[in-house]
User: What shape does this take?
Amino acid sequence: MSDVPATPPMIHIEGLTKVYGRTHALRGISFEVPKGQVVGFLGPNGAGKSTTMKILTGFVEATGGTVKVAGISVIDDPVAARVHIGYLPENNPLYEDMMVEEYLEYIARMRRIPADKVRGAIDTAVSRCGLHRVRGKDIGELSKGFRQRVGLAQAIVHDPDLLILDEPTTGLDPNQVVEIRNLIRELGKEKTVILSTHVLPEVQHMCGRALIIAEGKIVADGAPDQLSSDGGRLDVVVTGKRGAPDAAAARAVLNGVAEVAEVHERTTGEKDALAFSLTTKGNADPRRALFAALVEADLVLLSLDKKALGLEETFRKLTTAEAGKATPDDHHPKAA
Assistant: This one.
């Protein structure tokens, strides 16, 4: 047996809660992120994404639970934990009257980079973030895209192990979005990245794993492709052996199939026929069971079309379902 200690995950969160008055912003969430993984943290506005980020970085105090970065408790020793973290908040606060290079030097010294290594650290950050052309300009003169690059440069100037990026492409035009995505993808090759967003293409383009949060709870965790195919929809058209069947009876037959989660009637151009959309449970394939149930009920299956849920549909399904369970006290402007 090896005596070498196991490497701790880059992020370890267990039973994390945050309460604002009567509002539960986070409801005991738990997850781990190993070193070198790029994770998309998905959720609608008010789901708890930014609250989780702020607790991870030590800017907001947790109500309960365990939060560790590189094995260091953010709650017990936030200063030591922050050494490992580079953080780009959603509003990207910058000193607009400072030049890019001046600002990065200020951040480098705030990060306690040794004086003889400050210049090298700034040069590396400028190079990685494509800031050569603007390093001598005032930040206030820069476009939103370049300001985001400056925000990323300050987040990596001290060469952290973990990058925490909160809505990094908000307010950018399509060209700037592509540029920032490419930059984050490159940074993700050598650092652990957790990316908070409600923009689904961000996750599909940049992340190997997606966490979906809704109403302060983790409702899904997996690869984007896995979540896209986790569950699906069947469009079916049925008729009776002697004309149009009874809609309620046909619905009851479909609802009686174990692998079917929901049944919704839809319109059809077929004469004497009924059309339904069925949502399946998980990765279940109910086609054989459906066919058998319809035959037993003397119904005729005219067509069946199986469609996988896209990530957008999965996201809407999970987050709207969770929102439906929430009570009025669960909503609070701080639970971002």
Remarks:
- The CA atoms of residues 108 and 117 lie 9 Å apart.
- The domain at 231-308 is CATH 3.30.70.260 (Alpha-Beta Plaits).
- Confidence is low (pLDDT under 50) at residues 330-335.
- The first helix runs from residue 49 to 56.
